[in-house]
Write a structure and sequence with these properties.
Elements: H1 3-17, H2 21-32, H3 34-57, H4 61-65, H5 67-99, H6 124-139, H7 143-151, H8 162-190, H9 192-195, H10 198-225
Length: 226
């Protein structure tokens, strides 16, 4: 039994399941539709694939040795997360305005709003948007490849070739993310009848909007204050 592999699985599972921007975006899009949530989960896994590939190739070290590049990527990632948060808050404001002019009713599957609140999330365009949001939210986090670069070597046994082992560990992280975020999207959809009630949906989307806006502000202002 590979004790190091088991230990890494536990560490990686904890890292993947830790609530953050990925978690918030998946929940928010899963409220629009199950397929949008699953597309977002796939996008998050794709972003992790980029990070783990960078770590395996050793390219993440460039971010450590070039602070300007690191901070530029961090600003881009923070700006995108901030954009998602502001979009969510704006969608709530617009929906409240629309509901003030029409009878209040819970949106069914056909009436669900897309991830950005304006368009449906069931067509190819809406699913593509959800996939892109999941991917960019994860891929534009510059701290992830640095974390993997420092973490993966710790679980390569002495005497083993590092490349096959790190490839295995990287694939395990991506698989865990795909399983976790897909399960999260399905859970949100399972509870959809309750979660999509107008007041509940507004509360969840408002919470996700505030969380994403706060996280985006922290990511944007962090590099500027250093």
């Amino acid at each position: 039994m590979d004790a190091q592999l088991i230990a890494f699985t536990g560490v990686a599972a904890g890292m993947v399941a830790l609530p953050g921007a990925d978690f918030t975006v998946v929940v928010r899009n899963a409220l629009a539709s199950r397929t949008a949530g699953l597309a977002t989960a796939l996008g998050v896994a794709g972003g992790l694939l980029v990070h783990t590939a960078l770590a395996v190739a050793g390219l993440a070290a460039v971010l450590v040795t070039m602070p300007v590049l690191f901070r530029t990527v961090q600003l881009l990632g923070g700006a995108y997360v901030l954009y998602l948060g502001i979009s969510a808050l704006y969608a709530i404001r617009r929906r409240v305005s629309e509901e003030g002019r029409a009878p209040d009713r819970a949106p069914g599957p056909e009436g669900a709003k897309g991830p950005e609140g304006a368009e449906g999330a069931r067509g190819p365009e809406g699913l593509g948007r959800a996939l892109r949001q999941g991917f960019l939210t994860n891929a534009l986090n510059p701290k992830a490849p640095v974390l993997f670069l420092s973490l993966l070597p710790q679980f390569v046994p002495d005497g083993q070739p590092p490349l096959p082992r790190t490839l295995l560990l990287a694939a395990l992280v991506v698989a865990l993310a795909l399983v976790w975020f897909s399960a999260l999207a399905l859970l949100v959809d399972r509870l959809g009848r309750w979660l999509r009630r107008p007041r509940t949906a507004r509360a969840i989307e408002g919470g996700s909007g505030v969380a994403l806006t706060g996280l985006g502000l922290a990511l944007v202002t962090g590099p500027l204050l250093r």
